Amino acid sequence: MTTVSNYINAKKGILSWIFTIDHKRIGIMYLGFVLLAFFLGGMFALLLRLELITPNELILTARQYNQVFTLHGAIMVFLFIIPSIPATFGNFFLPIQLGTIDVAFPKLNLASLWIYVLGAIFCFYSILSGSVDTGWTFYTPYSSTAGGSIIPMVTGVFILGFSSILTGINFIVTVHKMRAPGLTWFKLPLFVWTLYATAIIQVLATPVLAITLLLLVLEKTMGLGIFDSALGGDPVLFQHFFWFYSHPAVYIMILPAMGVISEVVATFCKKELFGYRIMAYSSLAIAIIAFLVWGHHLFVSGQSPFITMLFSLLTFLVGIPSGIKVFNWIATMYAGTINMKTPFLYFLSFIFLFTVGGFTGVVLGTLSLDIHLHDTYFVVAHFHYVMMGGTVMAFLAGLHYWWPKMFGKMYNEVAAIVAFVFIFIGFNVTFFSQFILGANGMPRRYYNYIDEFQLLHFTSTVGSWLLAVGFFISLAYFISSLRSGKKASENPWESSALEWKTASPPVTQNFSTIPKRIDSGPYDYDKA
Ligand code: HEM
Ligand SMILES: [Cu+2]
């Protein structure tokens, strides 16, 4: 029996992967690496939660606890969530959704992947050679003076930044230069718009983090007084520089997720997306406002009342384009033909959890409340609702939606629904209890606490176990799908998006015949 050639079997041997310039293979390799990072970061999270099951020391010393939450945060942010959607699904589907054969700079794309791996190696080296206990934010003056192996860690993050910048440059040029004839801007899928807005932030914001970490290393190695007040430096300056990148960075995390969610809701409701143009503009509006709110991380760092009020106001502003998106996703469901499959379940959980995350962001953006809640578990719960309730749920929606296309195999739907239930319930048990802990004054980054908090911490830890069960069930059925899953058809979800007009998995050139012209929009259900 003749095997049909596709991007997976077109070339054989490990070297054909290591040196590939095929955007699909590069996307798949990123997927492998970010999933590894997620499971490693998840292991550290389970360790944290286990330590917190009792008020006193259980398995970790105070120093080890500080090291573990630092590694959990740094791995989850820099190695998992920032590349999680752009570098995986973005790399795989952007050229296909543009009706073309690859990104603008395929060799640069491959280089971005190995730069990511080099950065990861530096981070892991720092774990093995004494580790870091500063928190993922590397705040000075502690990071300027502390021992451990901060320099390999921040060098790793510095290098990872270049992988992000180069991917951003590649995607911006690809969207401008590689679109099929006829595919004008307002015919582009919203996933493309969100990748484009994200790429702008990657290119403009990431250099600021690189410079900040470079200055920290210079201060540590050459004793230059930049951030350390003992050397005449200013520790709050570090916070400004760090959050001038890291707040826009949260939109590098959430914008691509919003793009995935738009693709999934249109396909599983079989409906044109409600308010397509305003959704596209909202992606760009979010990318712009993202650069104007970093000061809300410094409300209790001694900013002037006027500046604090200004940053609070600007923080509320970002709620408008985000709110428009949530409204339009819900409006798209209205009178839709809903296909209640796993990708749609993750869509629903995204809508609910991201909205909780968004509202609690408004609470934290309110000065009078933030003074009470800053550095408590309310903040920890908030960013897990947006980063995990938002991006990770969208990542799972995208993974289940595009899995048949990427690997040509279906996964077990029943097992997927069981895993979804564990993940959704586990998530809320883990993190909703943390809102209550924080509102009652439980500080973050403490490994022991007063007895009154034990019941809530115990609940949160049990929740993290349910989460872990859900993720391991997912891992199991995806692996079994690769080995013995039912062959996927070209368009199992009956989607009208362009990528579903290719084979499952696609041929190396993406299309059997490269589209000469594309005049239809991405969500042409009403016209079908
Ligand atoms: C898999 C389930 C997860 C659990 C159970 C979990 C649990 C926790 C806990 C308990 C803390 C607080 C430690 C403390 O302040 O003492 C924490 C901190 C943190 N988590 Fe998670 N987390 C999970 C997933 C994630 C994900 C997916 C991300 C981001 C993508 C993330 C990013 C962070 C960050 C940035 C911190 C702050 C670390 C620091 O204070 O330096 N977590 N996590
Ligand atoms: Cu922020």
Can you put this structure into words, describing what you see?
This protein has helices at 15-18, 23-51, 62-84, 86-97, 106-128, 142-145, 150-177, 190-222, 235-269, 276-289, 305-317, 319-333, 342-364, 367-373, 377-407, 413-439, 454-484. It is mainly alpha-helical and 528 residues long. It has one domain (14-501): Cytochrome c oxidase-like, subunit I domain (Cytochrome C Oxidase, Chain A). Helix 2 (23-51) packs parallel to helix 5 (106-128) and helix 13 (342-364) runs antiparallel to helix 15 (377-407). Residues 247, 250, 296-297 line the site of copper (II) ion (CU).
Which secondary-structure class do the elements indicate?
Answer: mainly alpha
Q: Which small-molecule ligands are present, each listed once?
A: protoporphyrin IX containing FE, copper (II) ion
Assembly type: single chain
Overall number of domains: 1
β-strand number? 0
How many separate helices? 17
Key words describing this protein structure:
binds protoporphyrin IX containing FE, binds copper (II) ion, Cytochrome C Oxidase, Chain A, globular, about 65% helix, mainly alpha, about 525 residues
Strand and helix map with partners:
Layout (H helix, E strand, L loop, with lengths): L14 H4 L4 H29 L10 H23 L1 H12 L8 H23 L13 H4 L4 H28 L12 H33 L12 H35 L6 H14 L15 H13 L1 H15 L8 H23 L2 H7 L3 H31 L5 H27 L14 H31 L44
Bound molecules: protoporphyrin IX containing FE and copper (II) ion (CU).
The site of copper (II) ion has 4 residues, from α9.
